[in-house]
Each structure stands twice: as structure tokens, then as C-alpha cells.
Amino acid sequence: MYKKTGFAVSTELCSASLDFHHQTAKMSDKNVRNAGFTPSGISKGSLASSMMSHEAKASGGGVHSGGPTSSLQEMGARGTTHSSGFTSSGISSGSLASNKMSQEARSHGGGIPRGGTTSTVQSVSMGGKGGRR
């Protein structure tokens, strides 16, 4: 009887853990979509459109592939923010996001710049404004 109770408790804990993981996966993808990065494109009047405008002005008229706006739009369109490693609780170890963060840190002398791709994508996936006020 004790073993059955122990088994039932561990099944419940496993189920709760999986449900929590599923909810946090939904949260980071939802945050990116709420910011205006959607499957049908960037939403007018959203944080996404503001970011796109700022990035285009700063680069002389275009949004570069691999930059914050294009990265977020790709993940928003596909719903892959969480599976890429940008989660609502931070960057996942060993993920695409952690590799991107390491590359960006190396190219900037060891730190991640404010407004860079990694910091902006992580901020938005956590429900922030990507460094914008």
C-alpha cells in the first residue's frame, strides 16, 4: 500500500512538473506574440512595429537578418521562442539561445550589449519591452 501511495504521489508530481513546463513554454511564445510578432506579420502600433522602426532608422533604412526584430518575428511566426531556449524564466542551458548569447558575448569582448539581439529577444520573451521604454 505504501508503494502505491508513493507511486501515485510521484505520478502527480511528474504531471505537475510537465504542466508547469508546458505553461512556461506557452508564456514565452505568448509574450512574443503579445508584443506584436505574429504569424501574420508585425502588428501595427505594437512594440514590434516600434522596434522595427527604430532598428530600420539606426541601420539606414532596413532591418538586418539575425537582428532583434527579425529574430523575434521568426520566433513569433513559428511559435518557437521557448523551444529556441528563450524562456519566460531565462535562457536555457545548451540551447540555441545560449549559443547565440555566447557568440554575441565573444564578439563584444565578453559582455552582452543592451539592445543587442540576445538581450532584446530575452527581454521580450519574459514579457518586457526589449530595453525600450
Mean pLDDT: 80
Q: What's the tally of helices?
A: 5
Annotation, overall tally of beta strands: 4
Strand order in space, largest sheet: 1-2
Helix content: 55-70%
Question: How are helices and strands ordered from N to C?
Answer: HEEHHEEHH
Uncertain spans: 1-23
Structural class: mainly alpha
First-residue to last-residue Cα separation = 58 Å
Report the radius of gyration as a whole number of Å: 18 Å
- Percent of residues in beta strands: 5-15%
Main sheet properties: 2 strands, antiparallel
Description:
- This is Interferon alpha-inducible protein 27-like protein 2B.
- It is found in: Membrane.
- InterPro entries: IFI6/IFI27-like, IFI6/IFI27-like_sf.
- Belongs to the IFI6/IFI27 family.
- Its main location: membrane.
- The protein is mainly alpha-helical and 133 residues long.
- 58% of the residues lie in helices and 6% in strands.
- The chain has five helices and four strands, in the order H-E-E-H-H-E-E-H-H.
- It has helices at 2-34, 47-58, 68-78, 96-107, 117-125, and strands at 37-38, 41-42, 86-87, 90-91.
- A two-stranded antiparallel ribbon has the order 1-2. Strands 3-4 form a two-stranded antiparallel sheet.
- A hairpin with a 2-residue loop joins strand 1 (37-38) and strand 2.
- Helix 3 (68-78) packs parallel to helix 5 (117-125).
- The protein starts with a helix and ends in an 8-residue tail after the last helix.
- Mean pLDDT is 80; it is low at 1-23.
